[in-house]
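name: query_chain
kind: protein
chains: 1
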Amino acid sequence: MRQPLHKKARLEKPSVYPERFSVPDDKVDWCSYFGEYRPPYFVAPEILERFYQNPSEVDPEDCCKIKRPFYSFENKVELDSSNRPRNPRGRTGLAGRGILWRWGANLAVDTVLSRLNAETDELELLLINRKDTGELALPGGMVNKGEKIREAQEREFEEETGLKISMEDSETVYCGYVDDQRNTDNAWMETVASHKHMGSNQASTLSFRAGDDAENVLWHSLKPELITNLYASHDEIVRLAMYRFYDRCGGWLTAKTKEQIEAVIVRQ
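structure:
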């Protein structure tokens, strides 16, 4: 199945990035000839400095010095003429690795935490406001070297929301590429995303506080306009989570909750 074109990785960028080389939709695929393609090369100075401080966590500038193979949830990772991994979703208009620590896939985790509001009978999601962009997003973050996925999910969730929860009973809903503004031709974000639904009584006892990369953390009613404006590919992750939740638990959901989910899982 043909993967959707990445858009945020071509049309958006962190403030420290140079302007991206314009890549039209029909030139995104590496197989499409694009002779005039001249993307600027950029690696943030702080990434190079961090490598010298902690070379076990950050890749060296020279890809030939990297011993590990390059993996991706998408498919086999191809290398360019400079031995750098190529983004499996195609051109982004920027070469190098930007502000990402690793060449190739940079693995993250994301958590969809839902509850049924006992007072409004509405399905709600716990979301954060990111400090870097201000956008609403799922709680999550980078997987540390040698860390297990469940451990990373629980650690990142606690760091960003102040909540200590177990992810053992969660369902993995997505593993793959993230259309992220940090992505480049040679480094990109991938994630393992899981969904956990909490009962009303359990959820009502939670006390959270924003921390780490989060500016704020609140419950939000599940609505199409909310989901559409989430950070990166988080809208697609939520849609997948809600589709599977509906399929698995639709028998006991209220009519109002079903209506909410049905409005969201239809692509806007």
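note: The chain has a mean pLDDT of 93.
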